């Protein structure tokens, strides 16, 4: 079952005595692929979807997308190169990364880098309701 435990999104096995799994770390280890996550957790994709909908109100795919984009923003804040970030997050091409970042944050990667260099962590483009939810999930 997907739950919030001590401020972290975790998956707790219900029929096993194993420790809870931190899903944020697992998402990164699984290259933000739902199919890989279901293999590691030994559950079906449909079962994982039910757990996510019940606990977080979003699908696992959308949650993975949010985690991936939050990680991208964190790496940009740390000053990493954009092409290195795209490879680190599992994008096959930089263009796909740029397109995904722009569709999620409504700014291009270069605009985000410029904004982060000016230390404007709350640009108007990042304050949509969807992006607020993404930030909320990163803090959970």
What does this structure look like?
The chain folds into two domains: 2-60, no CATH class; 68-139, Arc Repressor Mutant, subunit A (Orthogonal Bundle). The model is unreliable at 136-140 (pLDDT under 50). A three-stranded antiparallel beta sheet has the order 1-2-3. β1 (2-5) and β2 form a beta hairpin. The protein contains eight helices and three strands, in the order βββαααααααα. α4 (60-77) crosses α8 (129-139) and α5 crosses α6. The chain is elongated, with a radius of gyration of 16 Å. The two termini are 16 Å apart. With 140 residues, the protein is mainly alpha-helical. It has helices at 23-29, 34-41, 45-55, 60-77, 82-88, 94-105, 109-117, 129-139, and strands at residues 2-5, 8-11, 21-22.
In short:
Helix content is 59%, strand content 7%. It has helices at residues 23-29, 34-41, 45-55, 60-77, 82-88, 94-105, 109-117, 129-139, and strands spanning 2-5, 8-11, 21-22. Helix 4 (60-77) crosses helix 8 (129-139).
């Amino acid at each position: 079952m997907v739950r919030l435990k001590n401020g972290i999104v975790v998956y707790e096995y219900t029929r096993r005595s194993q420790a809870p799994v931190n899903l944020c770390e697992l998402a990164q280890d699984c290259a933000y692929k739902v199919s890989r996550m279901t293999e590691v957790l030994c559950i079906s994709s449909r079962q994982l979807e039910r757990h996510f909908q019940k606990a977080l109100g979003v699908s696992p795919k959308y949650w993975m997308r949010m985690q991936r984009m939050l990680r991208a923003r964190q790496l940009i804040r740390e000053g990493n190169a954009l092409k290195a970030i795209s490879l680190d997050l599992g994008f096959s091409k930089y263009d796909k990364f740029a397109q995904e970042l722009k569709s999620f944050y409504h700014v291009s990667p270069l605009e985000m880098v410029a904004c982060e260099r000016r230390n404007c962590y709350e640009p108007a483009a990042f304050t949509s309701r969807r992006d607020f939810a993404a930030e909320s999930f990163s803090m959970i």
